[in-house]
Amino acid sequence: AAKADGKGKVKVFYPAMLEERRTRRILEMDLRHAVQDGCLELNFQPLFDAQTARLKSFEALVRWHHPMQGTIAPDQFIPLAEETGLIVALGDWVLREACAEAAQWPADIGIAVNVSALQVGHGEMLPVLVNTLAATGLDPSRLELEITESSLLALKPETVGFLRSVQELGVRVSIDDFGTGYSSMSSLQNFRFDKIKIDRSFVQAINGDAKSVAIIKSILELSSKIGVTTTAEGVETSAQLDYITANGCTEAQGFLFAKPMSKEAAREFIRQNA
Ligand code: C2E
Ligand code: MG
Ligand code: MG
Ligand code: MG
Prior knowledge:
The protein is built from eleven helices and eleven strands. It is α/β, with parallel strands linked by helices. The strands form two sheets. The protein has an eight-stranded mixed barrel, surrounded by six helices. Strands 1-2 form a two-stranded antiparallel sheet. One magnesium ion binds near residues 177, 197 and 233.
Protein backbone atom coordinates (compact mmCIF):
# COMPACT_ATOMS: atom_id res chain seq x y z
CA ALA A 1 0.00 0.00 0.00
CA ALA A 2 1.34 3.45 -0.89
CA LYS A 3 0.06 6.97 -0.27
CA ALA A 4 1.20 10.31 -1.71
CA ASP A 5 1.83 12.99 0.92
CA GLY A 6 1.14 16.01 -1.32
CA LYS A 7 4.70 17.02 -2.16
CA GLY A 8 5.13 14.37 -4.79
CA LYS A 9 6.89 12.10 -2.34
CA VAL A 10 5.48 8.70 -1.81
CA LYS A 11 5.38 7.27 1.63
CA VAL A 12 5.11 3.54 1.81
CA PHE A 13 2.98 1.87 4.41
CA TYR A 14 3.51 -1.82 4.73
CA PRO A 15 0.52 -3.89 5.81
CA ALA A 16 2.30 -4.71 9.07
CA MET A 17 2.61 -0.99 9.88
CA LEU A 18 -1.05 -0.35 9.13
CA GLU A 19 -1.90 -3.29 11.31
CA GLU A 20 0.29 -1.92 14.10
CA ARG A 21 -1.34 1.52 13.96
CA ARG A 22 -4.81 0.01 14.00
CA THR A 23 -3.89 -2.22 16.93
CA ARG A 24 -2.54 0.78 18.81
CA ARG A 25 -5.68 2.82 18.18
CA ILE A 26 -7.91 -0.01 19.32
CA LEU A 27 -5.74 -0.59 22.35
CA GLU A 28 -5.95 3.11 23.21
CA MET A 29 -9.76 3.02 23.03
CA ASP A 30 -9.83 -0.14 25.12
CA LEU A 31 -7.53 1.39 27.74
CA ARG A 32 -9.81 4.42 27.96
CA HIS A 33 -12.66 2.08 28.91
CA ALA A 34 -10.55 -0.18 31.10
CA VAL A 35 -10.04 2.61 33.62
CA GLN A 36 -13.83 3.03 33.91
CA ASP A 37 -15.00 -0.55 33.49
CA GLY A 38 -13.06 -2.24 36.27
CA CYS A 39 -10.68 -4.13 33.95
CA LEU A 40 -7.66 -2.94 35.91
CA GLU A 41 -6.37 -4.85 38.90
CA LEU A 42 -3.59 -4.23 41.38
CA ASN A 43 -1.15 -6.93 42.32
CA PHE A 44 1.05 -6.60 45.38
CA GLN A 45 4.65 -7.74 45.80
CA PRO A 46 6.18 -7.86 49.30
CA LEU A 47 9.37 -6.08 50.40
CA PHE A 48 11.43 -7.39 53.30
CA ASP A 49 13.96 -5.96 55.71
CA ALA A 50 17.21 -7.31 54.25
CA GLN A 51 18.81 -7.55 57.67
CA THR A 52 15.98 -9.08 59.76
CA ALA A 53 13.80 -10.66 57.02
CA ARG A 54 10.72 -8.93 58.46
CA LEU A 55 7.87 -8.11 56.04
CA LYS A 56 7.86 -4.32 55.65
CA SER A 57 5.64 -3.28 52.78
CA PHE A 58 4.16 -4.13 49.40
CA GLU A 59 4.60 -2.53 46.00
CA ALA A 60 1.37 -2.08 44.01
CA LEU A 61 1.73 -3.22 40.39
CA VAL A 62 -1.10 -2.65 37.93
CA ARG A 63 -2.48 -5.35 35.61
CA TRP A 64 -4.90 -4.93 32.73
CA HIS A 65 -7.33 -7.77 32.11
CA HIS A 66 -8.24 -7.23 28.48
CA PRO A 67 -11.50 -8.94 27.44
CA MET A 68 -9.96 -10.33 24.23
CA GLN A 69 -6.20 -10.33 24.81
CA GLY A 70 -5.99 -11.61 28.35
CA THR A 71 -3.76 -10.01 30.96
CA ILE A 72 -1.46 -7.28 29.65
CA ALA A 73 1.68 -6.32 31.59
CA PRO A 74 2.28 -2.68 32.53
CA ASP A 75 5.41 -2.41 30.36
CA GLN A 76 3.03 -2.91 27.39
CA PHE A 77 0.48 -0.25 28.25
CA ILE A 78 2.01 2.32 30.65
CA PRO A 79 3.94 3.94 27.75
CA LEU A 80 0.68 4.12 25.75
CA ALA A 81 -1.12 5.57 28.76
CA GLU A 82 1.63 8.19 29.06
CA GLU A 83 1.52 9.15 25.38
CA THR A 84 -2.26 9.55 25.41
CA GLY A 85 -2.55 11.30 28.77
CA LEU A 86 -4.65 8.41 30.12
CA ILE A 87 -1.96 7.92 32.75
CA VAL A 88 -3.51 10.67 34.86
CA ALA A 89 -6.86 8.86 35.29
CA LEU A 90 -5.10 5.50 35.54
CA GLY A 91 -2.65 6.85 38.12
CA ASP A 92 -5.42 8.33 40.24
CA TRP A 93 -7.20 4.98 40.21
CA VAL A 94 -4.02 3.10 41.18
CA LEU A 95 -3.29 5.51 44.04
CA ARG A 96 -6.78 5.30 45.48
CA GLU A 97 -7.03 1.53 45.14
CA ALA A 98 -3.59 0.97 46.69
CA CYS A 99 -4.22 3.32 49.63
CA ALA A 100 -7.69 1.87 50.26
CA GLU A 101 -6.27 -1.66 50.36
CA ALA A 102 -3.29 -0.76 52.56
CA ALA A 103 -5.61 0.99 55.03
CA GLN A 104 -7.04 -2.50 55.76
CA TRP A 105 -3.61 -3.94 56.67
CA PRO A 106 -1.80 -3.82 60.01
CA ALA A 107 -0.39 -0.34 60.62
CA ASP A 108 3.25 -1.45 60.39
CA ILE A 109 2.92 -2.56 56.75
CA GLY A 110 3.57 0.11 54.14
CA ILE A 111 2.52 0.53 50.51
CA ALA A 112 4.58 1.74 47.55
CA VAL A 113 2.88 3.18 44.46
CA ASN A 114 4.58 3.77 41.11
CA VAL A 115 3.98 7.19 39.62
CA SER A 116 4.81 8.36 36.14
CA ALA A 117 6.72 11.57 35.46
CA LEU A 118 3.64 12.82 33.65
CA GLN A 119 1.54 12.53 36.79
CA VAL A 120 4.20 14.35 38.75
CA GLY A 121 4.23 17.18 36.22
CA HIS A 122 0.45 17.43 36.42
CA GLY A 123 -0.76 20.22 38.71
CA GLU A 124 -3.62 18.16 40.16
CA MET A 125 -1.46 15.43 41.66
CA LEU A 126 -0.93 17.07 45.06
CA PRO A 127 -4.63 17.69 45.82
CA VAL A 128 -5.41 14.18 44.56
CA LEU A 129 -2.84 12.81 46.99
CA VAL A 130 -4.21 14.83 49.91
CA ASN A 131 -7.80 13.79 49.10
CA THR A 132 -6.88 10.13 48.68
CA LEU A 133 -5.11 10.02 52.04
CA ALA A 134 -8.09 11.71 53.70
CA ALA A 135 -10.69 9.52 51.97
CA THR A 136 -8.94 6.21 52.69
CA GLY A 137 -7.69 7.17 56.15
CA LEU A 138 -4.20 5.86 55.33
CA ASP A 139 -1.49 7.39 57.48
CA PRO A 140 0.88 9.30 55.11
CA SER A 141 3.92 7.70 56.76
CA ARG A 142 2.79 4.34 55.35
CA LEU A 143 2.82 5.57 51.75
CA GLU A 144 5.78 5.75 49.42
CA LEU A 145 5.80 7.01 45.84
CA GLU A 146 8.23 5.44 43.36
CA ILE A 147 9.44 7.49 40.45
CA THR A 148 11.42 5.81 37.70
CA GLU A 149 14.83 7.31 37.29
CA SER A 150 14.74 7.46 33.50
CA SER A 151 11.58 9.57 33.69
CA LEU A 152 13.44 12.14 35.80
CA LEU A 153 15.84 12.93 32.96
CA ALA A 154 15.55 16.58 33.72
CA LEU A 155 14.60 17.09 37.35
CA LYS A 156 12.79 20.37 36.74
CA PRO A 157 12.42 22.92 39.54
CA GLU A 158 8.62 22.38 39.59
CA THR A 159 9.14 18.63 39.91
CA VAL A 160 11.51 19.17 42.82
CA GLY A 161 8.92 21.51 44.37
CA PHE A 162 6.20 18.92 43.98
CA LEU A 163 8.35 16.15 45.48
CA ARG A 164 9.19 18.37 48.46
CA SER A 165 5.48 19.01 49.06
CA VAL A 166 4.89 15.26 48.96
CA GLN A 167 7.55 14.75 51.65
CA GLU A 168 6.05 17.57 53.72
CA LEU A 169 2.82 15.55 53.80
CA GLY A 170 4.86 12.75 55.41
CA VAL A 171 4.86 10.58 52.28
CA ARG A 172 8.22 9.12 51.23
CA VAL A 173 9.69 9.42 47.75
CA SER A 174 11.84 6.70 46.15
CA ILE A 175 13.89 6.67 43.00
CA ASP A 176 13.01 3.51 41.02
CA ASP A 177 15.24 1.49 38.66
CA PHE A 178 18.26 3.39 39.97
CA GLY A 179 21.29 3.22 37.71
CA THR A 180 19.41 2.85 34.43
CA GLY A 181 18.94 6.54 33.63
CA TYR A 182 21.39 9.06 32.27
CA SER A 183 21.42 11.30 35.31
CA SER A 184 21.66 9.10 38.39
CA MET A 185 24.11 11.35 40.20
CA SER A 186 22.46 14.65 39.37
CA SER A 187 19.06 13.27 40.45
CA LEU A 188 20.58 12.49 43.85
CA GLN A 189 22.20 15.89 44.02
CA ASN A 190 19.04 17.80 43.15
CA PHE A 191 16.58 16.10 45.46
CA ARG A 192 16.74 14.31 48.78
CA PHE A 193 15.11 10.98 47.95
CA ASP A 194 14.15 8.77 50.88
CA LYS A 195 15.09 5.55 49.12
CA ILE A 196 17.02 4.20 46.18
CA LYS A 197 15.65 1.11 44.45
CA ILE A 198 18.59 -0.56 42.75
CA ASP A 199 17.57 -1.85 39.34
CA ARG A 200 17.36 -5.60 39.05
CA SER A 201 19.89 -5.67 36.20
CA PHE A 202 22.59 -4.85 38.79
CA VAL A 203 21.21 -7.23 41.39
CA GLN A 204 21.06 -10.10 38.94
CA ALA A 205 24.61 -9.48 37.81
CA ILE A 206 25.91 -10.23 41.31
CA ASN A 207 26.74 -13.82 40.44
CA GLY A 208 28.45 -12.56 37.33
CA ASP A 209 31.56 -10.53 36.61
CA ALA A 210 33.63 -8.55 39.10
CA LYS A 211 32.75 -5.25 37.42
CA SER A 212 29.01 -5.63 38.07
CA VAL A 213 29.66 -6.60 41.65
CA ALA A 214 31.79 -3.47 42.09
CA ILE A 215 28.96 -1.33 40.71
CA ILE A 216 26.32 -2.59 43.13
CA LYS A 217 28.77 -2.37 46.02
CA SER A 218 29.46 1.27 45.12
CA ILE A 219 25.73 2.10 44.96
CA LEU A 220 25.25 0.61 48.44
CA GLU A 221 28.25 2.54 49.82
CA LEU A 222 27.11 5.76 48.21
CA SER A 223 23.60 5.36 49.61
CA SER A 224 24.83 4.78 53.12
CA LYS A 225 27.18 7.79 52.88
CA ILE A 226 24.38 10.13 51.86
CA GLY A 227 21.93 8.59 54.33
CA VAL A 228 19.44 7.09 51.89
CA THR A 229 17.88 3.66 52.42
CA THR A 230 18.13 1.05 49.66
CA THR A 231 16.01 -1.70 48.16
CA ALA A 232 17.51 -4.38 45.96
CA GLU A 233 14.97 -5.18 43.23
CA GLY A 234 14.68 -8.50 41.48
CA VAL A 235 16.40 -10.70 44.08
CA GLU A 236 16.04 -14.22 42.68
CA THR A 237 18.73 -16.27 44.43
CA SER A 238 19.94 -16.66 48.00
CA ALA A 239 23.47 -15.82 46.81
CA GLN A 240 22.17 -12.40 45.65
CA LEU A 241 20.36 -11.90 48.95
CA ASP A 242 23.45 -12.85 50.98
CA TYR A 243 25.56 -10.40 49.04
CA ILE A 244 23.25 -7.39 49.41
CA THR A 245 22.65 -8.19 53.10
CA ALA A 246 26.38 -8.41 53.79
CA ASN A 247 26.89 -5.09 52.03
CA GLY A 248 24.34 -3.19 54.11
CA CYS A 249 21.32 -3.04 51.80
CA THR A 250 18.16 -2.05 53.71
CA GLU A 251 15.43 -3.99 51.90
CA ALA A 252 14.97 -6.77 49.38
CA GLN A 253 12.25 -7.57 46.86
CA GLY A 254 12.08 -10.31 44.27
CA PHE A 255 10.89 -13.70 43.12
CA LEU A 256 13.09 -15.38 45.79
CA PHE A 257 10.49 -14.18 48.31
CA ALA A 258 7.29 -13.85 46.28
CA LYS A 259 5.90 -12.80 42.92
CA PRO A 260 3.29 -10.05 42.71
CA MET A 261 -0.03 -11.46 44.01
CA SER A 262 -3.73 -10.59 44.17
CA LYS A 263 -4.98 -8.47 47.05
CA GLU A 264 -6.67 -11.51 48.60
CA ALA A 265 -3.38 -13.41 48.45
CA ALA A 266 -1.56 -10.41 49.93
CA ARG A 267 -3.96 -10.38 52.90
CA GLU A 268 -3.27 -14.07 53.47
CA PHE A 269 0.47 -13.43 53.08
CA ILE A 270 0.30 -10.77 55.80
CA ARG A 271 -1.57 -13.16 58.11
CA GLN A 272 1.09 -15.81 57.65
CA ASN A 273 4.01 -13.40 58.07
CA ALA A 274 2.65 -11.47 61.04
P1 C2E B 1 9.02 -1.55 38.72
O1 C2E B 1 8.33 -0.48 39.45
O2 C2E B 1 10.50 -1.53 38.72
O3 C2E B 1 8.44 -2.90 39.31
C1 C2E B 1 9.18 -4.08 39.47
C2 C2E B 1 8.94 -5.03 38.31
O4 C2E B 1 9.85 -6.11 38.41
C3 C2E B 1 7.55 -5.66 38.31
O5 C2E B 1 7.16 -5.91 36.97
C4 C2E B 1 7.80 -6.98 39.04
O6 C2E B 1 6.87 -7.98 38.73
C5 C2E B 1 9.16 -7.33 38.50
N1 C2E B 1 9.92 -8.19 39.42
C6 C2E B 1 9.90 -8.19 40.76
N2 C2E B 1 10.75 -9.09 41.25
C7 C2E B 1 11.34 -9.69 40.19
C8 C2E B 1 12.32 -10.73 40.05
O7 C2E B 1 12.84 -11.29 41.03
N3 C2E B 1 12.69 -11.07 38.79
C9 C2E B 1 12.14 -10.48 37.69
N4 C2E B 1 12.54 -10.89 36.49
N5 C2E B 1 11.21 -9.49 37.78
C10 C2E B 1 10.82 -9.10 39.02
P2 C2E B 1 5.75 -5.46 36.39
O8 C2E B 1 4.69 -5.68 37.41
O9 C2E B 1 5.60 -6.11 35.05
O10 C2E B 1 5.91 -3.90 36.22
C11 C2E B 1 6.80 -3.35 35.28
C12 C2E B 1 6.93 -1.86 35.44
O11 C2E B 1 5.69 -1.20 35.09
C13 C2E B 1 7.20 -1.40 36.88
O12 C2E B 1 8.57 -1.57 37.17
C14 C2E B 1 6.76 0.05 36.81
O13 C2E B 1 7.78 0.85 36.27
C15 C2E B 1 5.59 -0.02 35.83
N6 C2E B 1 4.33 -0.01 36.61
C16 C2E B 1 3.68 -1.03 37.22
N7 C2E B 1 2.55 -0.61 37.83
C17 C2E B 1 2.48 0.73 37.60
C18 C2E B 1 1.53 1.76 37.98
O14 C2E B 1 0.54 1.52 38.68
N8 C2E B 1 1.81 3.03 37.54
C19 C2E B 1 2.93 3.32 36.81
N9 C2E B 1 3.13 4.60 36.44
N10 C2E B 1 3.83 2.39 36.46
C20 C2E B 1 3.61 1.11 36.84
MG1 MG C 1 8.48 0.36 41.20
MG1 MG D 1 12.03 -0.89 39.56
MG1 MG E 1 10.96 -1.07 36.28
